[in-house]
Design brief:
By secondary structure, the protein is mostly helical. The chain contains 15 helices and no strands. Helix 5 runs antiparallel to helix 6 and helix 8 runs antiparallel to helix 9.
């Protein structure tokens, strides 16, 4: 039986809505009529099988690519996507997990098919449009299937398309230093929005999967933020004379920053409503990290303090929403900031031997204290939320 159903029954019984006999009858009925669920081993096998199947299909098509005419290639790709989705629909009554895997692989094959078809018809100059078409296909799959893999597909492909469009724009050329700060801030905000998907009473499968993706995206983008340069230098003379660079980049920067800030807020509002208001603080944190820089010692120290405050804020947010993953990510962030400070400001001053000894002490004592604090924080979360 689904653990979520058992949890709901226990909550209803604790609230006095049902008595013990009624709760037992509900459990018996659910056990008898619940659809067959895959074990964890089965889900792992389906996931690995899906990845291998998708890779094998794309490799097979690519290996025979030169032997096919453009329209034959297009037909083969379309047939591959159709077969996978049709097979997923046919096996749904027998195994929901297998059906979900086949549909997810079908959407993955759609992306490969789009780019391979673009290669056949010489559409390389519009390569970001491939991500847009892929995202539209994933969104259609989400509307039809309502499953968690397509939530992740949409959550990944939409920002990927926007970043691709930004990088492919004519004004983002090697001299344009401020171009990478914008997507870094936007991805950090989206990571925070995805991480906030789980809250009190909101722990559906797609929310848990999205929050795990958000945790990875948040940590990676946070590590990048201090090293991107927000400055926009003047246009070099050799570019200023060209017609394609006549439009100043400031207007495009304003548009880009608007998308980078508003898209995470919109995503957070769609996922959690007004409960996602801490995203405003998260985005302000990302902008401050980009603007602060690490050129001087004072700036570096201020950056470490800013990140420690951000980790503490993430822990507070996790406790507030009874979300253990958010607390764990905040604790991991705190530990990484301490390690970064040690390597950047302490290790070189101690020498190699003393630096290694200090690092060992930091891992042993600091790790023990941090794990002890983490357990206390998790213990404050009522109900054992995921």
């Amino acid at each position: 039986m689904d653990s979520q159903i058992l949890k709901r029954i226990a909550q209803w019984q604790a609230a006095g809505l049902i008595d013990a006999a009624t709760a037992e009858r509900i459990r018996a009925w659910e056990s008898e009529h619940a659809p067959a669920r895959s074990t964890r081993l089965g889900r792992i096998a389906f996931a690995l099988g899906g990845v291998l199947l998708g890779a094998g299909v794309l490799l097979f098509v690519a290996a025979n690519w030169a032997l096919l005419s453009p329209w034959t290639r297009f037909g083969a790709l379309a047939a591959t996507v159709a077969v996978l989705h049709v097979a997923g629909g046919l096996v749904r009554s027998r195994s929901v997990a297998l059906s979900t895997t086949l549909h997810a692989v079908g959407t993955a094959a759609l992306g490969g098919g789009i780019f391979l078809a673009g290669q056949s018809f010489n559409l390389a100059e519009q390569w970001p449009a491939g991500f847009l078409l892929w995202a539209i296909g994933a969104a259609v799959g989400l509307l039809i299937l309502r499953d968690w893999p397509h939530v992740l597909w949409v959550a990944a492909l939409v920002p990927l398309w926007l970043c691709a469009e930004w990088e492919a724009a004519e004004f983002v050329v090697p001299w344009f230093r401020g171009g990478h700060a914008l997507p870094a801030v936007g991805l950090f905000g989206l990571g925070a929005a995805y991480l906030a998907a789980v809250g009190d009473g909101r722990d559906a499968t797609w929310r848990r999967a999205l929050s795990r993706v958000g945790a990875v995206l948040l940590l990676v983008s946070a590590a990048v933020l201090p090293f991107v340069d927000p400055g926009v230098p003047p246009l070099p003379p050799e570019f200023a004379a060209q017609q394609s660079f006549a439009t100043p980049p400031q207007a495009w920067l304003a548009l880009g920053w608007s998308v980078a800030i508003l898209l995470p807020l919109l995503a957070g509002w769609l996922i959690r409503g007004v409960a996602a208001w801490p995203l405003i603080v998260a985005i302000a944190f990302a902008v401050a990290a980009v603007l602060l820089g690490t050129t001087t010692t004072a700036q570096s120290l201020a950056m470490h303090l800013l990140y420690l405050a951000g980790a503490a804020g993430l822990v507070w947010w996790g406790i507030r929403d009874s979300h253990r993953l958010r607390v764990n990510v905040g604790v991991i962030g705190f530990a990484l900031v301490v390690l970064a400070f040690y390597f950047s400001s302490v290790f070189d001053k101690l020498g190699r031997a003393l630096g290694m000894i200090g690092l060992g002490v930091l891992f042993l004592v600091g790790g023990w204290l941090l794990e002890r604090a983490r357990r206390r924080l998790i213990g404050r979360i009522a109900g054992g939320a995921p």
